[in-house]
Sequence to fold (290 residues):
Amino acid sequence: MGTLVRIELYTAGADQAKAAFRAAFARIAELDATLSDYRPESELNRVCRTAIGTPVPAGADLFRVLAASRKLAEETDGAFDVTFGPVIRLWRQSRRDQRLPDTAALHQAAARCGYRKLHLDTARQTVMLDEPGMQLDLGGIAKGYAADAALAVLAGLGIHRALVAASGDLAFGDPPPGRHGWKIGLDSPAAVLQLANAAVSTSGDEEQHLDAGGRRYSHIIDPATSMALASPIAVTIVARRGVDADGLATAVSVLGAARGLAFMEARPGVAGRIVTDRVIQSSGWPGARR
Fold:
């Protein structure tokens, strides 16, 4: 899924640890083969090629991620939209070329996007797309789902003190021995969270961006404009599951500070911090004043 994954765990011995690492990373590899748009033969890309106007069956993992994505798209009125793969690919190429994408190409790509063109049949577990050339991109939610899944594999092996980090998307089990939680450092401004049996995701332009025309463009795309975010914003979300934290971090980035804060406050079990020219924390943020 275009990133590196790190796992930390506590076991009774080295043999148990090695077996646990193998099982957890095997699960992540399975999900990479299912959910990655970087792999031409992933299940995701096969569905994009074959589901045009025809419902096609989807595996359990792909269908769960698409269902969660569609639900978040509806709740945010399209601020989160996994159908914007054609636009995302243009911006991905622009970061490699170090120049802004062509405006006409962006318009043409955007015409093939829109979450209402993605149809899911829960009873039959099928996927259908409305138009040729549609491309689903799960980069804003798949890593959180994979972190959850790897943590579940470890729990199934009786290993509950574990952390799975897929770049900026982390899922935590029970805390390390003798501690109340896993310590996670945040930047700008510096802060330390201590979490257990939770997940945290951070979205921002620090690592992936394009500098052009005197502006910095994030890797996060606003579906309403097909433009990369150009106003500095970093969002950190704490939730019970990684799939929720991951998707919400992207959605709140697009919604912006005011709408994003209101959206977080309306969701039970979710807390967040938004950094623009100031720091805004939701009422549920660890240590926040109520």
